[in-house]
Design brief:
binds succinic acid; Methane Monooxygenase Hydroxylase, Chain G, domain 1; four-stranded antiparallel β-sheet; 3 domains; alpha+beta; globular; three-stranded antiparallel β-sheet; binds flavin-adenine dinucleotide; Flavocytochrome C3, Chain A, domain 1
């Protein structure tokens, strides 16, 4: 198992009942996007007010109907059972006084259906999973262990027709040693790639390692042009990263430009919604889906030249705000913003990779050269995978849900490989020959390259793209890729170099996918597509 977020640990906990599971994770066991998830996990739990049909419809509408309908139905319908399992391991989703779940509202949902633990849902889930795995006699979590590459039969030229995964090369960040791990089943659960962008909500682990590793062994990737930008991230100058949950807008938070906010203050009005630019963009106002809100903010910022817009929630009961959003309240306060009184300056930032490694309905990785075949013994689950659930845009809080549903499906499917273990003995595996590499004199070059990629992606491959921007991006990325490849093949490996090699590959794949998409849909917007569509009408 590679990765210790919700996807990896959910799989490990179940697979541990059938054999030994080693979870390698590149930082501490809890460090993951999962740990920072705020809003919660979507599921139909109140069948009097809500229904599977409604959750399915909302997911499809948000996704621009590019979703795979079978997968949407699977995820929505299997949700209650997976939620029950999280509760069984100790996740205490909030309840009302009458004992029913306190379900929250988020953009694009037509019903309150988000289970949450205040605004720290991910941390509660991650803690419960880590605790359960640590108690499990068959599950071992190895921290600071970073997967570099997968080992497959075709790569080793052991097979030419079928392919199967045999394990992975793992870099020990403390000793610098590289080891070969063999496994009957290998699971990629390495999360997203938000770190490819200058501004992101994602933690530093999110460098697209899984996508890059899978691509290098011939996996198909899909939908990489659909990068979700979260509309509301606390503006802090350079590199804004602290998320202000969509649930804040779900509770009544309103977006306004700086001048709209000033007008609102002068007017003495009680209802801020009348002043919000979002009314021009969508009838749902500030609670429209993320693609619409992020693009609207981008447009307003370009028009006004402002650096941020405001998210205002101070018209609501201050005690309710503090109780419902303790993490957001305290973090904003540490920046001198009292959200019960002040507007919150926010900007969009890269948040979620909708695309990823193409997998089938059991999480098996599909081959690029032959999409009717899978790479046996290899699964991808969680944000690293693309199941087809989200279509062109992910509905809020559907990601944690997708992770637990696909962790379960993959676990069930993978049992078939246990009866037929990997046959190649470790002695026959090629070992990493560390002697041919030299030490890097100036590691700072790697930081410069990473920084350059982030800026290229932010400036040219962001919320609004154009053919010219994409071409500029690919020219620059190609040069950087050459540079990075030179470092990778000639110098002693370190964490930055491993990540950089993945980041540059995933960045290029995102640009290539963007160049291929000729229709603006969901999260994808290229101004040249719009011009062409207008001309042809
Ligand atoms: P992660 O939780 O990111 O875990 C990835 C794991 O892989 C980590 O342990 C990492 O260290 C490890 N890893 C990565 N590369 C390597 C490597 N090379 N070798 C070894 N280990 C590696 N979604 C929702 O549904 N609801 C929400 O409320 C919500 N809020 C969010 C808030 C924030 C701030 C963020 C960033 C995301 C949010 N999301 C939310 C999205 C959701 O949290 C993620 O999509 C989900 O947690 C992904 O889980 P995962 O297990 O796939 O990956
Ligand atoms: C949020 O709390 O706004 C994040 C929810 C998500 O990404 O699904």
């Amino acid at each position: 198992m590679i990765g210790s977020g919700i996807a990896g640990l959910s799989f490990a906990l179940k697979a541990g009942n059938h054999g030994t599971v080693t979870v390698v994770t590149k930082k501490s066991s809890v460090e993951s996007s999962t740990n920072y998830a705020q809003g919660g996990i979507a599921a139909v739990m109140d069948f009097e007010r809500d229904s599977f049909e409604s959750h399915i419809k909302d997911t499809l509408e948000a996704g621009g109907y590019l979703n795979d309908l079978d997968v949407v139905e699977i995820v929505v319908k299997e949700a209650p059972e997976r939620i029950k399992e999280l509760i069984d391991i100790g996740v205490e989703f909030e309840k009302r006084e009458n004992g029913s779940f306190d379900l929250a509202m988020e953009g694009g949902h037509s019903q309150r259906r988000i289970l949450h633990v205040a605004d720290l849902t991910g941390a509660a889930i991650e803690r419960a999973l880590v605790d359960a795995c640590e108690k499990h006699p068959n599950v071992t979590i190895i921290e600071n262990a970073m997967a570099i590459d997968l080992i497959t039969a075709r790569k080793l030229k052991l097979k030419t027709d079928e392919d199967e995964c045999l394990g992975a090369y793992i870099f020990d960040k403390k000793s610098g040693e590289i080891s070969t791990y063999l496994a009957n089943v290998t699971v990629l659960a390495t999360g997203g790639c938000g770190q490819i962008y200058l501004n992101t909500t994602n933690p530093s682990i999110s460098t697209g390692d899984g996508i890059a590793m899978a691509y290098r062994v011939g996996a198909k990737v899909r939908d990489l042009e659909f990068v979700q930008f979260h509309p509301t991230v606390l503006y802090t100058g350079e590199k804004s990263s602290f998320l202000i949950s969509e649930a804040v807008r779900g509770e009544g938070g309103v977006l306004m430009t700086i001048s709209e906010y000033e007008e609102f203050l002068k007017s003495g009005e009680k209802d801020p919604t009348k002043f919000s630019f979002m009314r021009k963009y969508d009838e749902r106002g500030s609670l429209a889906t993320r693609d619409i809100v992020a693009r609207a903010i981008d447009r307003e910022l370009k028009k006004s030249g402002d650096r941020y817009v405001y998210l205002y929630i101070a018209h609501l009961d201050p005690e309710h705000i503090k109780e419902r959003f303790p993490n957001i309240y305290n973090t904003c306060l540490s920046y001198g913003i009292d959200i019960t009184k002040d507007p919150i300056p926010v900007v969009p930032a890269a948040h979620y990779m909708v695309g990823g490694i193409a997998v089938n309905k059991n999480g098996q990785v599909i081959r690029r050269d032959n999409p009717n075949q899978v790479i046996n013994r290899l699964y991808a689950i969680g944000e690293v995978a693309c199941t087809g659930l989200h279509g062109a845009n992910r509905l809020a809080s559907n990601s944690l849900l997708e992770s637990v549903v696909f962790a379960h499906r993959s676990y069930v499917d993978s049992l078939k490989y246990l009866e037929n273990p990997v046959k190649i003995p470790l002695e026959e595996m090629p070992l990493w020959d560390a002697t041919k590499y030299k030490p890097i004199d100036e590691k700072v070059f790697l930081k410069h390259d990473f920084d350059e990629i982030r800026r290229i992606m932010w400036n040219y491959v962001g919320i609004v793209r154009s053919n010219e921007r994409l071409q500029r991006a690919i020219r620059r990325l190609n040069l950087l890729e050459e540079d990075i490849s030179h470092y990778y093949w000639n110098y002693i490996l370190n964490e930055d170099l491993i990540e950089l090699r993945n980041v540059i590959l995933v960045a290029r794949l995102i640009v290539e996918a963007s160049m291929e998409r000729k229709q603006n849909i969901g999260l994808f917007y290229n101004i040249d597509n719009e011009k062409r569509e207008k001309q042809s009408n």
